[in-house]
Structures are given as C-alpha cells and as structure tokens.
Amino acid sequence: MSEPVVVAEIFRSGVVEGHHYGSVVALDATGEVEWSVGMVDQPVFPRSCNKPLQALAMVRAGLDLPPDLLALGCASHSGEPFHIDAVRRILAGAGLDESALQCPPDYPLDDAAKEALIRAGGEKAPVLMNCSGKHASMLATCVINGWDTATYLAVDHPLQVLIAETFAELTGESVAHVAVDGCGAPLLSTSLVGLARAFRTLAVAAPDSGPEARIAAAMREFPQNVSGSTRDELALFTAIPGAIGKAGAESCYAVALPNGQAFALKCDDGAPRVRPVLMAEALRRSGVDKLDGVDVAAMNQTGELPLLGGGKPVGEIRATF
C-alpha cells in the first residue's frame, strides 16, 4: 500500500520546522493519471468536495433551480448575507422554512459576517451553517418527488440511495465506506483518482448537454456562491477560465478544467492552510500556468502562505512535490 508523503514544508527564519504529509493526483486531458504522489488509489472521505456530485443526483431527480441557487446546492458557503438569502429562497420555493433544515446550528464561516451577527445579538442557526444550501436543495428534491422530508438524511432514504448511485457512477468506483459528515448527511468515500475523475466529468460536459452541464455552468457563473467573496477558491476559479472545483474539510480539494485536466488532493493532518498551497503547485506542475487566458499571478497568489514573526513575513509554507 502507498502512504502519504511529505507534500509541504514549514520554513521559518531559514529553518524547516515541520512538514505536512498528504497525497495529490493529476489527470491529463484524456483522463489518465499524469502523475501522483502519496496515497491516491485508496478510499478517503472527500468531505464537502462531494457536494457538486450530490447536487448532480438532485438535478437528475428533478431539482430545477436557477444557476445562482444551484451553485448554493454545491456550496460550503461563507454565511454572507447573499448566501443566507439564497438558502431561504430555495426553501421558500419548496414551501418550507428553516425549521426543516437538519444541519446543526453554526456561525457563518466568514469572520466579518460572524462578527456582524454577534454584534447584532444573533446566535448560531442551521441556516447559517456552511452546508445549509446543500440541505435546502436536498429538501427541495424531496418535495418534488414526494419523498419524506423528516428522514432525508437517512442512508436508506430514496434521495441518499440515488446520491450514492450517482456518486459511484461518476467516480467509477464502488463506495467502500459510508460515514456521517459534519453536517449530518451521509458521507461517501472514494479515492483521489475517483474524485478527480468525477470532477472531470462535470468540467468537460458539453453546454446544454444535461444535468452535468448545468452543475458546471452554475459553479462557473456563480463561484462566489460556491464558496464566498473572500475565499481562496473564488480567487483560483476567477484566475483560470472555465475551472470548477470544491474544497472540503480535512484539507481536501478537487479542481477540473474544461480541457479535461483534473486534480484532487488531501493533506493527511487535515490542515486547511496548506490546501491552496498544494493545489497551486499541482496546477503549475501540470502546466496550467501556461494555458491561454490564465491569470498566472492570481493563480500563484492563491498558493502563497507567508509565516509571520512579529507581524512580518519570516518564512512560508511551500510545496515539496
């Protein structure tokens, strides 16, 4: 069995003080593995990277949302006001309200939104949780199909069965493990190769060709809805024309381009700080910085993580593969 390898080093004041271990895979334009490091063929939990694949199953089941709301169905949103308004629109369109959400109450991920909420006397709420767009979309799908909304998170619910089938189809792998994600929804495993393969399928879908194209188009048109207005994911997808992707907990990340290239990674210690560093290096290693239209400076900046000493840069976390 392969194992995670050192994928980044923590470099401070001229000394390497630590390392991050992980795994990375890149698919070429034909969908074949171009290169990899670490454990890329064994099951992992991609966490929120699974959301666009879950959303695809919902669209196939009849979920019909405008692109901005469909993007929220794929999102780990920051809890900014426009995100919360969109989640409420999904619920209202299904004749539901926030009481139907079964994700746990939380504060917004965005610091400014969280601080504004607390100053205003607000509290944690399920609608503020970063997965509420997915949960609202799940509920809307249940309403469309006449499925029970009270048990929509049960692994044997018709919605979750359909999601598992769609997930296995796109990854090209059977689901080896089913767990419970942080939001309470079933969490499906796949390898990093399978995850990259699934995102590639979405990214190369021809316009107007069906549900896959609808998911990709929504993510491309409204990347701020998939993440947030200040997030590194938004900066990356703005820098690379046509790119789609999704970050997840435990330092997971998947990105795919319309030319067929696709990437997936996971840092073994789950450190979120190193995730964009690794992706930026993976993209450079596969020549994405040489593609037409790419804002190379902006792409590279997403992978820059200076370490501070006394408030000033004294080092960096840098990729080693």
Question: Mind explaining what this structure looks like?
Answer:
The protein is 37% helix and 19% strand. The strands form two sheets. Strands 1, 2, 3, 6, 7, 8, 9 and 10 form an eight-stranded antiparallel sheet that branches. The longest helix has 14 residues. It is globular and about 60 Å long. The two termini are 19 Å apart.
Whole-angstrom Rg: 19 Å
Strand tally, please? Answer: 10
Q: Point out poorly predicted stretches.
A: none
The helicity comes to: 25-40%
**CATH architecture of the domain at 5-60 and 155-319, please?**
3-Layer(aba) Sandwich
CATH topology of the domain at 5-60 and 155-319: Beta-lactamase
User: Averaged pLDDT, please?
Assistant: 97
**How many H/I helical runs?**
12
User: What oligomeric state is this?
Assistant: single chain
CATH class of the domain at 5-60 and 155-319: Alpha Beta
Q: Write down the overall geometry.
A: globular
Structural class: alpha+beta
Distance between the termini: 19 Å
Order of helices and strands: EEEHHHHHHEEHHHHEEEHHEE
Q: Biggest sheet, in brief?
A: 8 strands, antiparallel
Give the percentage of residues in beta strands: 15-25%
Keywords, please?
321 residues, alpha+beta, Beta-lactamase, 19% strand
